[in-house]
Design goal:
135 residues, homodimer, 2 strands, 5 helices, mainly alpha, 6% strand, two-stranded antiparallel sheet, Arc Repressor Mutant, subunit A, elongated, DNA-binding
DNA sequence: AGGAGGTGGCTATTATGCGCATCACACACG
DNA sequence: CGTGTGTGATGCGCATAATAGCCACCTCCT
């Protein structure tokens, strides 16, 4: 029922990236801002890069930059990029076979969790990073 | 971002308890209904018992019974009883000290997660077991 | 050449799922 | 009234997986 530390760090890294006046920002500066080791930051930034959320520039003057506008980027994007799909219950996974299933829409509990999950997801995808721009 | 298997099982156990026509129900029958081993079921039932959600009766004709009416018991009760407090982010814990804190209400991210968390909790405490009574 | 990120693997810690052994209790039956 | 049997209570322990974080080496750009 919790996002991982990694996802939390990812959010901080995106925030640090967004508020930095001089992109591209090297991982060292980002990790300092976000308060984690550079090694771990690199791992997280790689995931963000693969997901197309940030761009990475190698080389002497390289670093990271946001690939999408803050108002286009939501908490949901970042969290699912790091933690994988948001699922309140494991029974919401695609390949889960419920022993209590009665019809194709699954058991009543499944349906309830499915609805709740959709709501949570919707909320997370509603909160974009422009909300945090002036903090 | 997921409830544990244990909490999921707990929900199934409560459901089995609720739909059983002859309380008190021994753990053996409940575990069979809910599809888990009796040992694990006992551990979960103990937690439910300590939380006052079910009553346990020792002895030859003993077993478990619901201590509260189904319409008074919600998914939130059962989940928090097993998994502990619902927290979308670890920074919502009471003893967490945020490095980014700016005032007593915490950083902007904290505030957002706090609100989301409250919403989720509210939803989970809105869904009581009478919804599942006739399934 | 040197400073940047990319990749994969590695370790330590914690959470999770579940089992085992033993004790405590309540009823039933002799 | 005592003892046996079936029930739950308790605590220990372990196997597996997830998580958090680190390291070494490679690639790429300037």
């Amino acid at each position: 029922m919790r996002i991982t530390h990694e996802a939390d760090y990812a959010i901080r890294l995106v925030y640090a990236l967004m508020t930095d006046p001089l992109p591209p920002v090297p991982a060292s500066r980002l990790s300092e801002q976000a308060g984690l080791t550079i090694r771990f930051a690199l791992k997280i930034l790689r995931k963000l890069s693969q997901a197309g959320i940030v761009t990475a520039q190698k080389g002497a003057t390289g670093g990271y930059a946001l690939a999408v506008a803050p108002e286009e980027l939501t908490l949901g994007h970042v969290i699912e990029c790091i933690d994988g799909p948001i699922r309140l219950n494991h029974c919401l996974a695609d390949d889960y076979i419920c022993s209590r299933v009665t019809d194709k829409s699954g058991c009543r509990f499944h349906q309830v969790f499915d609805q709740l999950n959709a709501k949570l997801k919707q909320e997370l995808y509603r909160i974009d990073f422009s909300n945090f721009q002036n903090d």
